[in-house]
Design a protein that fits this description.
52 residues
């Protein structure tokens, strides 16, 4: 496996280094967020069924 990076100028942050590992980290964060939201929505749906 190879690792690469580049430097970019972002308006709010200035010079920022972006590595290929960041893409993996973002993917993991989105997977965790999706799982957490799915669990929260399922619990909310179960609670609303019990109220009726």
């Amino acid at each position: 496996l190879s690792h690469s990076f580049g430097t970019f100028h972002l308006p709010l942050f200035g010079e920022t280094e972006l590595a290929t590992a960041v893409l993996f980290d973002v993917g993991v964060a989105l997977a965790v967020l999706g799982t957490a939201l799915s669990i929260i929505f399922d619990i909310r749906e179960d609670i609303s069924i019990w109220k009726h």
